[in-house]
Amino acid sequence: QKEVEQDPGPLSVPEGAIVSLNCTYSNSAFQYFMWYRQYSRKGPELLMYTYSSGNKEDGRFTAQVDKSSKYISLFIRDSQPSDSATYLCAMSFSGGGADGLTFGKGTHLIIQP
Amino acid sequence: KAGVTQTPRYLIKTRGQQVTLSCSPISGHRSVSWYQQTPGQGLQFLFEYFSETQRNKGNFPGRFSGRQFSNSRSEMNVSTLELGDSALYLCASSTTGTSGNTIYFGEGSWLTVV
Asked: What is the pLDDT of residue B43?
């Protein structure tokens, strides 16, 4: 069993739809959870950063963490064609990077105009 | 504020050669970490440096090494290149690498081994 599972997609939705992206993980010691967006041939761009369980909202993006279920989600409202990218979930024990981030393999998202 | 800068962006090497990649972190960031990204394995942690000391290392062979300089700039080296080392190598920086620090990535160095 991999430490972090993420459906690779592709996930194709029409413009304006609400997108739901998810990851499950096996190590209950993870405390910090992140979502990155990666465009083709570019580096990952940090979207959301959360600690422990709960919700966090930033503009059109909402991140949810359910540590009891070992499940994290990213919701994108009013999706735009420019949101088409690969979305990577990441998690760590300490949150700062010293212990390394553990990534899912990413979900390829396509927003159809 | 400038982001994480990596050089070179693209390079092609021959099996058996070695390669050195460079990373300049965001100004004020002292923690630098390196990752390898391949289609098969995704993003995998290589190592992390803070104040010129390696604090943590991922599960990679000893052919992969790195160092950090007093100005926080970092280099990673891969010796005796293998075809499987073809990947995007990403550098990331954060303030101190400790709890609560957010981690920012550079654009990466694309390495092709032929």
From this structure: 95
